[in-house]
Amino acid sequence: MTDIDHTRRRLLAGATLLGTGAALTGCGDSSPLAAAHAADTASGDHTTDVVIVGAGLAGLTAARRLTASGVRTLVVEARDRVGGRALNHPLAAPARPGTIVEVGGQWVGPTQDRVLALIAELGLETFKTWDIGDYLDYRNGQLVPYGHLFPADPLNLGLNRIPPTDPAGAAEAAVAIQQLNDMAARVPLEAPWTATDAIAWDSQTFQSWVDANLFTPGGRDLLQLAIEAVFSAQPRDLSLLHVLFYIHSAGSLDHLINTTGGAQESRIVGGSQRIALRMAEELGDRVLLNAPVTQIAYDARSVTVRGERFSVRAQRAIIAIPPTLAGRIRYSPALDGLRDQLTQRVPMGTVIKVQCVYPTPFWRDSGLNGQVTSDTGPVKITFDNSPPDAHVGVMMGFIEGEDGRRALRQSREERRQGVIDSFVRYFGEQAAEPLDYIEKNWAAEEWTRGCYAGYMPPGVWLDYGEALRAPIGRLHWAGTETAEVWNGYFDGAVRSGERAAEEVLALL
Amino acid sequence: MTDIDHTRRRLLAGATLLGTGAALTGCGDSSPLAAAHAADTASGDHTTDVVIVGAGLAGLTAARRLTASGVRTLVVEARDRVGGRALNHPLAAPARPGTIVEVGGQWVGPTQDRVLALIAELGLETFKTWDIGDYLDYRNGQLVPYGHLFPADPLNLGLNRIPPTDPAGAAEAAVAIQQLNDMAARVPLEAPWTATDAIAWDSQTFQSWVDANLFTPGGRDLLQLAIEAVFSAQPRDLSLLHVLFYIHSAGSLDHLINTTGGAQESRIVGGSQRIALRMAEELGDRVLLNAPVTQIAYDARSVTVRGERFSVRAQRAIIAIPPTLAGRIRYSPALDGLRDQLTQRVPMGTVIKVQCVYPTPFWRDSGLNGQVTSDTGPVKITFDNSPPDAHVGVMMGFIEGEDGRRALRQSREERRQGVIDSFVRYFGEQAAEPLDYIEKNWAAEEWTRGCYAGYMPPGVWLDYGEALRAPIGRLHWAGTETAEVWNGYFDGAVRSGERAAEEVLALL
């Protein structure tokens, strides 16, 4: 697809223009992805109604909603592109020109109604994640294929993504998942700190809960892997209350970990970044790229957002970036202690997303769906990430949490070797020589600083939860970390943008 | 004292000068504290050997050490004053002119050898914290005075600051303290993550340890109060491993919580900020005030530190500010993920330091030493903070952790009323009408963002500990959060500054 290129060409030029309607339409269809224009820095003094910081899904959704209501907006984005944690990467030949893989977030699934509605509105289409064939489980040095045990999962036991390699462990994990789902249902999404057991649950790590409630090594391993895969953090990093909130926010732990029926069910034709690119296209010159915000001044009458060579004056601001990045902006007057200290306490997860390209998805020939769970890193979770028509094969893996942190200071070559070793362990020697190796280390991305999302260590929800979304004067907060439903996912980002836009509309 | 004024006058003017030797000497002796000159922003392009970010005790100590070795340095400080978390506040009449109280850190104690040596070198003197008379314990609605049970503490039971009001609780707390001291001794100060039990200890909150090891409500309350008082955070916020590291870093939990014999033993004549002011005096124009750093660029040959209207080019940089503030600077190239993600994970504690001035320290007349422990907030810990000659009485209290966070969004008047209610509860109606109320909310301080120090939630030492002090190219890290000994205290700050200076000296 060339959405990226087309939009970039127009947006890079947009340094001095203001959104005044007339979104451009049409879509070019030719040139390769342009090199990044890091030297192009936004400049000029702008005036609008609502300034939005961050052109990820949250910020763009807010801008779109406000624009539809006739409100002037300007989105300022630090990077030379839109999409935030959604980023397409074009595959080299022999992949056909225009074929991409996502190096950031990529999936949508059932009950993610707002992002699914947005995808439809934007004229985009989804296709199913490859989920045909057997799973593989690598555990205690053994590689075991297994099928969907309970494809319909009639008892909602959450078993369909739990490998049965260690039957005692699998059974214990299934019971634990049910327990967690039950506890999670008792966490109010709008105010997790008001749960009856909030103090007990926010006083311990998820690891402490595992230590007290699971007794088989297999069961513990499975729970740990599930947490690493969902949060890209270790069970010890997370508040039990946060894990329960997150489960409730998604509906159930099954929703979080399953492919079919869960958050990994579908992909977007042309890549998930197209959601952002299409919105940016609609918004036209209302998006200002290469515009890192360094200061935000606000008073009773207006707000002014500043970068090194630009400023935007508006009635209100929506700050649609993760808390840890929002805390790096200098506010005038300085934000009160509760909000600032919150931003010190919502660290981003740690994940390096890796992909190897092969001539074909050869694992399918062996009846495998390409999805691995493993007790051995660096890659403990894999997916078949081939394009819809599978004209090349793409094996994707995550290096998450502790494994990810260890890999942060490795060289690319060391990481590549670790990844290939993992893939060979799961899929044999055919995996040894990929045509291409693609990696994205989100912790090193200056304008994200970790993925998938910000999370809450113990104690944060209790003492700082109320500062997560509450506006401060003319400043409003968005971003998936502020979402009640599908927090941490594209859907949560979209919902947060819609909510922030409504908040502002009611006050203009 | 007029150190402040004298130093400020010279330093405020120092925007364009470089330290090239010839520290100014002498000390003025006249004018009242000048108003802050927020509008004075440092400007100009400077060149030096070592640029130091932050004029707290760590940064100034490093500058002093480097200067003594003949190395050119320039300290850039965001505020219009030196001292960081050390700040003198002049008392109004009827206190004699020049009388101060500290609104930041104020104490030193035995084994804090480096700060004690520095104090002596700078010609400053200490005096004992008022510790004569009975303690008060307020618990379950009862106010109970008690004496030093074991003044000599021959068995090192750590009992002398543990109120005996609830004997079962006190006994259990004493045993727990001994247990913690024993565990702490097994944490290597230079690498806590290498402790034999590091994984178990860093996987749980301190609250989880209390829940598993203390069974009387009284014992739990006492441990909680000790942790709140030492960390200005809740037991649920802290990694057990971090608490153990911190205890070992100070020598024992007794050292942390005791007045006589502990970290609260002595005060500095003229106020603790004089340590910084005297160093700044020596450094003269090598300190640049009103110079918030926004960017640091570094490569194989040099480092350039920039603010809005100034730059400093040097061979190396020492960044002597807490991790959460260091993370707000923009680095070029961007810091690697491990270091950046560390800065997302070391939040500052939460404390509002409050003081009421009375015509006399009237509690002394009742045989009280002014030190309270309490189960009821907002103020649960108090100290007699009167000047050495007690010509006025000053009652000081801390609003810490959870209480502090609740108070962050109260008005000053609401906080004042809560403080006076607490003081009246402990010392009677005579406390009801102070001559003056002084408060300092460190979470709202733009260039500190919380006190006493940054702390580690679970999991941080294990996965990020190695990034705390390790230099990155030409960037070196100081600040009390990086100290092995007396981490979080003045002494740790001084040691970190000395260590960073040695690091740099070995490489110049």
Structure description:
The structure is a homodimer of 508-residue chains. With 508 residues, the first copy, chain A, is of the alpha/beta class. Among the domains of chain A are: 3-85 and 271-345 and 457-505, FAD/NAD(P)-binding domain; 159-257, Orthogonal Bundle (Guanine Nucleotide Dissociation Inhibitor, domain 1). In chain A, 31% of the residues lie in helices and 19% in strands. Chain A has helices spanning 3-12, 57-68, 113-121, 167-184, 198-202, 206-213, 217-231, 240-250, 253-257, 273-283, 323-326, 337-343, 401-407, 412-427, 460-464, 490-505; strands at residues 44-47, 50-53, 73-76, 88-90, 100-102, 107-108, 126-128, 134-139, 142-146, 266-268, 287-288, 295-298, 303-306, 310-314, 316-319, 330-332, 351-358, 368-374, 381-384, 393-400, 436-441, 475-477. Chain A has a seven-stranded mixed β-sheet with strand order 9-8-18-19-20-17-21. In chain A, a hairpin with a 3-residue loop joins strand 13 (303-306) and strand 14. In chain A, helix 4 crosses helix 8. Residues 1-39 and 149-158 of chain A have low confidence and may be disordered. Chains A and B meet through helix 6, helix 12 and helix 15 of A and helix 6, helix 12 and helix 15 of B. Chains A, B: Residues 57-505 form the Amine oxidase domain. Chains A, B: It comes from Fontimonas thermophila. Chains A, B: This is Monoamine oxidase. Chains A, B: InterPro entries: Amino_oxidase (IPR002937), FAD/NAD-bd_sf (IPR036188), Flavin_amine_oxidase (IPR001613), Flavin_MAO (IPR050703), TAT_signal (IPR006311). Chains A, B: It holds the Pfam family Amino_oxidase.
